[in-house]
Amino acid sequence: MRKIKKEKGVAGLTILLSVVAMVFIIGFLVMIFALMSAELQDNTTDATAIQVINDTGASLAGVTDWFPIIITITVMVALILLTVIIIVAIRSSGIMGAQGTA
Q1: 38 CB contacts (<8 Å, ≥6 apart)?
Q2: What are the sequence ranges of the domains in the chain?
Q3: Cα distance from N-terminal residue to C-terminal residue, the chain
Q4: Are 34 and 86 in contact (CB under 8 A)?
Q5: Cβ atoms within 10 A of the Cβ of 75, count?
Q6: pLDDT tens across 45-93, in order?
Q7: What is the SS3 string spanning the chain?
């Protein structure tokens, strides 16, 4: 028998928390790769390898520009889910009655 979640007032919260955790992990990985590229660049003498390391570091620096966009879109999705749940709750409670139907 399946258990159904019946938590009240947490519409979209799991999605929002998942995205915040995902953004944190992505930021952590970007920081690790940025530190690694700096160390590799200091210890490398080959011009081609240094160019590849510079290109990789530059592309990683551009990743952080997407974080505010990801958070904004996720919050919008969570608010839409909350609105849908509120509308369904109002309709199922009978407050609207028959006059609200078209």
Answers
A1: 57
A2: 13-92
A3: 39
A4: no
A5: 14
A6: 888 988 988 888 888 777 777 777 777 877 787 778 778 777 777 777 7
A7: CCCCCCCCCCCCHHHHHHHHHHHHHHHHHHHHHHHHHHHHHHCCCCHHHHHHHHHHHHHHHCHHHHHHHHHHHHHHHHHHHHHHHHHHHHHHHCCCCCCCCC
Residues in the chain: 102
Residue with tokens 């970007």: 30
CB 9 within 8 A of CB 76: no
Residue 85 CA to residue 9 CA, distance in Å, equals 9
* Entry pTM: 0.51
CA 48, 49, 51, 52 torsion: positive or negative? positive
